[in-house]
Amino acid sequence: MRFIIEGNGGFTAVHGRRIQMQQGDVILTPTWNYHDHGKDGSGPMIWLDGLDLPNFRHFPVHFVQHFNESRYPAEDVDSDGSPLVFPWKTMKALLDEAPGDWAVKRYLRSGQREVSRVLGGCAERLHGGCASAPRRETTSAVYHVISGSGHSVVGEETLEWTKGDTFCVPSWYRYQHYAAAGETVYLYRFDDRPMIEALGFYRSEETDVESLVSDCHPLPDLNSPKSRFPTTPRLCQRSLPQEVIATPYNIPQAGRMESRPREESPRPPPAVKRRRVALACDSCRLRKSRCDSTRPQCSSCIELGFECVYRPPATATNIIVQKDYLQSLESRVHQLEDSLSTVKDDLNRLSSRVSQGGGSDTISSELDQHARQITPLRDLAGTEDSVDAMGTITLADEEDSGFFGPSSNVAFTRHLCRAIGSCATLNGAPTGLLADTPAYDGGFVSASRPPSPPGPIDSLRFDQRGKDIFKLPPPSETLSLIKQYFTNTGLLFPYIHPPTFLQTYEEMVRDNFKRVRRTWLGLLNIILAMVTITASPYDAPANTRVTDSDVFYQRSLGLCRDEILRGTTLEVVQYLLLMGQYLQGTQKSVQAWTVHGLAVKAALQLGLHSKDASRAFSRLDKETRLRTWFGCVLLDRTLSMTFGRPAAIPNSYVKLDLPAGVILVDASTVVDDQTSSLSLSLYNATITLYSQIAKAIDLLYGQNVGCDPPASVSEIIAHVFSLEQDLFSWERSLPDPLRLINLDQMQDLRNTITSDFDFVALRFRIILTLRYSNFRVLLHRPVLVRFIDSCGRLQSDPQQLQLLQQLGLNSIQISMDSTMQIIDLIHDIVHRTHYQHKLLGAWWFSLYYTFNAALVILGILIVCREGGMAAQFVGAVADKIRMYPFRAALALSKLDSGNRMVIRCRVYLERLISTSGLYSIEELSSGISSGSSLEFPFPPPADLDISPLGVEFGEFMLDGNLFASINPPAA
Predict the structure, then answer these.
(1) Whole-structure pTM over 0.70, yes or no?
(2) Is 665 exposed, middle or buried (0-12, 13-18, 19+ CB in 10 A)?
(3) 150-164, 534-548, 684-698: which has the minimum mean pLDDT?
(4) Which domains are present in the chain?
(5) How far is CA 814 from the centre of its chain?
(6) How far apart are CA 384 and CA 376, in angstroms?
(7) How far is CA 409 from CA 631, 644, 852, 899, in A?
(8) Which of 226, 524, 840, 937 shows a CA-CA span of 20 to 30 A to 478?
């Protein structure tokens, strides 16, 4: 039996008759008939096949015989007149005509015959808010929901279902269907009733037992003396065959019926022979007690409270191995493999140390230290992938490549390197950096190196494989971390509903972690990872936060490794979205790009971008879907900007209205309504700001595609002016609690904080100001790039250069003001107390803003030195911003002590300052009285690598080409 679930245009050919498939139809493919399938047109065909393979294999008579050609010759037939087709329109009409709230119609051929000797089927109709009659029968059935929603109670389990769901009802389980209010439910069912009836095994709970009594012998008259002592053997009367436990349908044991003589009979009744069972449980076998072999627990074990385990004897020839027993064996094998792997690694490490000449005392000492040692600068989130768009690279022994378009820091640092190399060449200084080296053209980075030697990070990777992915911290600690998320990251990106999430967690704890979804558990673990890695450096050192957060990350990955490839629920989209945000703060930011791609595809698959697709959901679900969609849009704009790659979500896809917050403001279990409302205002302000970032990337950076010819100066200035007008309108639309803030205002407000809301409001203003200032730097950077590219060139276009000097000075001024504001705010906050350090967002955003601002200031200073601007402008600008690269380096040194990514960026910045030729030796030593000389007050570790093979292909990638030919300054 084939039920057509979805699609049109397909066909089933049955022994020369081609039948068109229509949604809801039932098509038969009888035994011994050649049949195949085909599809005309586009779109999928989905159907549900009803088979009885266990029965056929049991005999066994199941096999497949292929036709000797690719297709059996067939011609179209009229579906309405074919005995092989039961059109849904006909069946639905019969159901609708039937009286009552519940109607059942079986699929029958002419003469009221079942469709086959083995399988049969029916359709059911249930009015909204009504229930079917309770049933219990010896057939096994499979149901499919054609339309509507509701639930079924099968045995003691409640199954929620909606359109498209499929569920089963095992034999002799009592079941009843309930339709949701307001919608009519249609169900399709196929079962094995024809075969069960033919074998004489069919019985329903309503069946009169007397009707099942065999008529082979007449019933005795118990009042007759002749019947008291039968002289001939008689068949035992039974309502069902007794030995049915081993059947593939798992029909429960039937009750035994027998005739009893009167009490005055001089002879006792014959002893009832014990029914033999296929397998007794271990407990009954040990006690040599009678076992009724009921699964999952026999009656004796239930009464005595014993654990009921069925373990087949070693001599059994038809062993049925239970799934839990196989799982326990697999678990033990995995533990043995892990133990052997650990021993092998330790032996290899010990052997290598012995071969290097170390004595036994030294080896023993090193092993003791290894047991206690925690690597102080462990790479983030476990392992490094391959390269990192501020710009460093770590590659395997094969080539790894990545494209970084015009908006990335990789592209901008190449302009700086070109200018430094060109100026050094013109001044006669030896350098390996040529002004027009082809390696600097485009945005493609490629590098290769031998594989890295195994280090501490390898052991970390092994540790995570050995951990239980279902393990969680104690409930009180987990609940505290969840609330920290909703008062930090959850306020900045409010796409997870706090009350719903907390309610699910409380139910999970109350039910002792039973029936919890893997995707929800994965989402919980990635939330815990996010809380851990974004914690203040005063709460825990960087290496501890990285290690602890990676434990949660690895668990979430183990839980959802398969589900993320399907991406069929909103929970999975939220999981992927939050994982993408988490990976931005790790040495796996190349994976952030990949994971974000999965999140976008899953969001589009669920129709989060569509207003029509959300109409079927409740108001709460609509709002959650909307916020999750805009979360995908924000992450897409961020990664497009930092990686310099085309957006995965074009602006033309973003047509939904902004979140309204009518439903989600009630988060009283975590924060008050006032804070929730302000959080939504920040979210909406960020959405509108980042839509302008996407517009700027389209107009000024050629959509990061890397195909358009360079725009003229006049075109760039015109686009910048137009976008500045839009940005001005955005700033004026901000509510008063989110107005942009400068350093003086922040210092004044910081001293007047009297409540948690005041602190949150100030934090939101600072974060929004940093986002705004960073966008202005990005907006005006193309003008600065034109100035930088003109430095050191003998054949610059004088007309374009003159136009640039006339129109571009205002852009340079705006870039300078924005970068100074970023550095001033972050520098001031990181030098304050632990509490005020929390005014910033996630540390990797502060790192990106500071590092990017410092690069732009160095670019402005290079242009000032080379005379690319008007003379009256140069002196004032250079004096004002000359100290800011040092100020940025000092801010990075205080941002997150011990964080490898922060250290790499700081050291790169300091060496770039040293090799730029902008500062004298005295200035480098004194840091221009800024308190940050280049004597490395926080020395980088010996194993720190900022070469082109130092970090993975990510948003903090550092272009190491500058140091490939220019030696770093001597200490």
Answers:
(1) no
(2) middle
(3) 534-548
(4) 2-81 (no CATH), 87-198 (2.60.120.10), 276-313 (4.10.240.10), 467-701 (no CATH)
(5) 40
(6) 16
(7) 24, 8, 7, 20
(8) 840
Instruction: Name the nearest CA neighbour of 876 among 887, 861, 888.
Output: 861
Q: Are 195 and 140 in contact (CB under 8 A)?
A: no
β-pair partners for 126: 102, 185
Amino acid at 934: L
Q: Which residues pair with 402 in a beta bridge?
A: 445
Give the list of residues 6+ apart from residue 60 with CB closer than 8 angstroms, or none.
Answer: none
Q: For the chain, give percent helix, strand, coil, nearest 5.
A: 50, 10, 45
Would you call 743 helix, strand, or coil by DSSP? helix
Residues 898 and 843: beta-carbon distance below 8 Å? no
Sorted by sequence, the CB contacts under 8 Å of residue 375 that are 6+ apart come out as 456, 457, 543
Q: Please name the amino acid found at residue 350.
A: L
The token duo for 171 is: 């034999």
Cα diameter, the chain: 134
Count the neighbouring beta carbons within 10 Å of the beta carbon of residue 35.
20
User: Residues 398-436: pLDDT tens digits?
Assistant: 445 667 888 888 888 888 888 877 665 555 544 444 344
Q: For residue 596, how far is the Cα from the chain centroid?
A: 9
Residue 553, H or E segment: helix 542-560
The residue written with tokens 């038969």 in the block is 28
Residue at 80: amino acid letter: D
Q: Which residues, listed in sequence order, are joined to residue 39 by a DSSP beta bridge?
A: 10
Question: How many CA within 13 A on the CB side of residue 841?
Answer: 24
Tokens 């980075």 appear where?
Answer: 445
Q: How far is CA 14 from CA 11, 29, 34, 79, 763, in A?
A: 10, 6, 6, 12, 70
CB–CB of 887/932 below 8 Å?
yes
Measured CA to CA in angstroms, residue 563 lies from 517, 595, 684 at distances of: 11, 13, 30
Counting Cβ atoms within 10 Å, is residue 369 exposed (0-12), middle (13-18) or buried (19+)?
exposed
pLDDT in tens, 145-198: 999 999 999 999 999 999 999 999 999 999 999 999 989 999 999 999 999 999
Nearby residues of 220 by Cβ (< 8 Å), 6 or more positions away: 227, 230, 259
The residues, any chain, with a CB within 8 Å of residue 597's CB and separated by 6 or more, are 648
CA neighbours within 13 Å on the CB side: how many for 574?
24
Q: 201 with 136: CB under 8 angstroms?
A: no
- Whether the CB-CB separation of 844 and 584 falls below 8 Å is answered with yes
Distance CA 671, CA 102 (A): 48
Q: In the structure encoding, which two tokens stand for residue 373, read together?
A: 């040692």
For residue 530, the one-letter residue type is M
| H/E stretch holding 168 | strand 166-169
User: What span, in angstroms and rounded, lies between the C-alpha atoms of 196 and 186?
Assistant: 25
CA 257/CA 203 separation, integer angstroms? 15
Q: How confident is the model at residue 874 (pLDDT cuts 50, 70, 90)?
A: low
At position 435, the amino acid (one-letter code) is A
Report which of 480, 465, 410 is spatially closest to residue 440, judged by C-alpha positions: 410
Nearest Cα to Cα of residue 495 among 601, 593, 599: 599
- Type of residue found at 631: G
Q: How confident is the model at residue 63 (pLDDT cuts 50, 70, 90)?
A: low
Residue type for position 823: I
Cα 211–chain centre separation: 58
